[in-house]
Amino acid sequence: MSYTSLPSVCGIGLRAPHYREALDTAPPLGWVEVHSENFFDGGSPLAMLRRVAETWPLSLHGVGLGLGSAARPDAGHLASLKRLVDELQPAAVSEHLSFNHSAQRYVNDLLPIPYTRAALDTIAGHVAQTQDALRRPILLENLSSYVEFPGNEMNEGEFLAELARQTGCGILLDVNNLYVNRINLGTDTDAVLAALPVEAIGEIHLAGYSEREGLLVDTHSQPVHDGVWQFYREVIARIGPRPTLIEWDLEIPPLAVLRGEAAKAQAILESRHELA
Q: Which of 67, 92, 155, 168 is disulfide-compatible with 126, CB 3.0–4.6 A?
């Protein structure tokens, strides 16, 4: 099954401060990813995104659908995403494996889920509903987390693997998130990686964390840290080259800085391509 038509090179998360420069200069970005919800209202943002989609391979990354919630996906949100996907025909569509809403309330956050059979059954239904609406498989991203639910029946990798098996979805492996969980929670990242079906991993994210009172916080406001770069090398050696994204969402630097980070990832990908 094809989860994405992105090339196995490094791209960047394209954010508003860089729209004009990117379109005016058309640098070799590999591919770009944007947050889907920023373009639901159409108008000039969508017109800009059409130009982006004509220039680079495009990935749509959702932050608001909340497929890990107990409540079903919001019908209006899903309809807006479908319109965007139908118009742009992106190379990939992804969402977070998180919860963010109930029937009465929406929370602007990516909250963790319990890794239980009951949660798996509920979330599998939400993923199937979403993929049926979009008429394509989506990628689901693992989260950074600062607490663990008691009573987990499997690790995150096993949960994602079973979700992929049941629904046909793919996996967006956020290497930074997994590294943060290793440091903060003592997550056995080797066990998580071992459980993931390699063929289902369609994309990788890299980002920079912040440190607050000894806790690593997934802020996307820093360069990728040395420990994450090393972990990324290990992951690529294990699963082979994958489309890789540099995310930077706060304290956004000049575009040249993002391109420099992408070049580091690209060098790692190319070295692995040469060994293949």
A: 67
* Rounded Cα–Cα distance for residues 30 and 198 (Å): 23
Decide: residue 26, CB within 10 A, 0-12 exposed, 13-18 middle, 19+ buried.
exposed
Average pLDDT over residues 89-95: 97
The residues, ordered by sequence, that sit 6+ positions from 81 with a Cβ below 8 Å of its Cβ are: 36, 40, 60, 62, 65, 93, 133, 134
Determine the Cα–Cα distance for residues 173 and 104; give it in Å rounded to an integer. Answer: 31
Q: What digits encode the pLDDT tens for the residues 3-24?
A: 899 999 999 999 999 999 999 9
- Residues 100, 69: contact at Cβ < 8 Å? yes
β-strands 106-111, 201-206 pairing:
unpaired
| pTM exceeding 0.85 | yes
> Which two three-digit tokens encode residue 251?
């304290």
Torsion of CA 230, 152, 201, 215, to 10 degrees: -30
CA distance 181 to 215: 10
Alpha helices in 197-251 (DSSP H): 226-239
Is 124 in contact with 159 (CB distance < 8 Å)?
no
